Here is the input.
Amino acid sequence: MKLAADLHTHTVASGHAFSTVKEMAEAAAERGLKMIGVTDHGVNMPGGPHEYYFSQLLGLPRFVGGVEVLRGVEANIVDGAGNLDMPERYLSSLDLILAGFHEDCGYDPGSVEENTRAMIGAINNPYVHIITHPGNPSFPVDIEKVVLAAKRAGKVLEINNNSFSLSRPGSSPRCRTFTEMAKRHKTAVCVNSDAHIWHAVGQFDQALNLLEKARFPAELVLNTSLEKTKSYLSWVKNLLQKTS
Ligand SMILES: [Zn+2]
Ligand SMILES: [Zn+2]
Here is the structure.
């Protein structure tokens, strides 16, 4: 399976990452990608960007080194209802809204039921495009319930390549179950690097390996084509206009 976009990357603005937008985009170009999402952490991340950063992000060039750059955020889920740490004006002005659980960002891991409810709350947030690393064992959720909620809402769940590294140890079995459930219920996923340094951009090997082993259908993987990615982004936007 070949991917056209990496929709989850972090720059120096995240406070614990090492490369600039230019370095990330150039690395994406070298890997043959057509698009990246610049998705620094939401404002609750210790050492992360102030909200002013997201205003300035709107001035980012649309293309860097021939790679289309989406202006995004990986927002933090801050409570049991699945609310996020980003003011609505940014959720509505950015191109790409990722949301996920992170330690020390407002929501402490609860029971499986509590985590599941919070994650489903974020799935149902009309601004959210992708739920990041839902297989994180530090915030265990009821995988089938989450997959079904994503399917119902038409939202996308991430298979995060970085989860197979040191950053979220113990993720593999849960990511495998997510993959199997998503296949069974025909729910879309997105494979991302979650790169925190230029050379990790476009690194998808372990996540793709998991999908291949599960014989996961390529048509259910959002970022296999730019067309699919863009039409999903506009579908969410249209949905928002209808509901507001
Ligand atoms: Zn990070
Ligand atoms: Zn994350």
The chain has a mean pLDDT of 96.
